[in-house]
Amino acid sequence: MLDILRSIVQAVNDARNLEQALSIIVSRVKGELKVDVCSIYLRNQETSDLVLMASDGLDPGSIGAVRLANNQGLVGLVAQRAEHLNLDNAIEHPSFRYFAETGEERYHGFLGVPIIHHRQVLGVLVLQQRRRHRYNEDIVTFVVTIAAQLAGAIAHAELSGDIDALASPETLDVLALKGVPGAPGVAIGQAVVLQGQADIEKVPDRKVEDPAAEKRRFLQAVKAVKLEVRAMVENMGDALPTADSALFDAYLMMLESQSLIQPILDGIAAGNWAPGALRDTATAHIRVFREMEDPYLRERAEDVRDLSRRLLQQLEQKPEQGKRTRYPRHTILIGEEITASMLAEIPPKSLAGVVSMRGSTTSHTAILARALGIPAVMGVADLPVSRVGGREVIVDGYAGRIYINAPATIKREYRRLLKEEQELIEGLQGLRDLPAESEDGFRIPLYANTGLLSDIAPSLHSGAEGVGLYRTEFPFMIRERFPGENSQSELYRQVLQAFHPHPVTMRTLDVGGDKALPYFPIVEDNPFLGWRGIRITLDHPEIFLTQIRAMLRANAELGNLQLLLPMIATLDEFADARALILRAHAELLEEGLELPLPPIGAMVEVPSIIYQIDQLAARADFLSIGSNDLTQYLLAVDRNNPRVAALYDSLHPSVLLAVKAVIDGAKRQKTPVSICGEMAGDPMAALLLLGMGVDSLSMASSSIARIKWVIRSFSRRRARALVKKVLQADNPQLIRHELGRALERAGLGGLVRAGK
Ligand code: PEP
Ligand code: MG
Question: Ligand 1 pocket, 473 CB below 6 A?
Answer without folding.
Answer: no
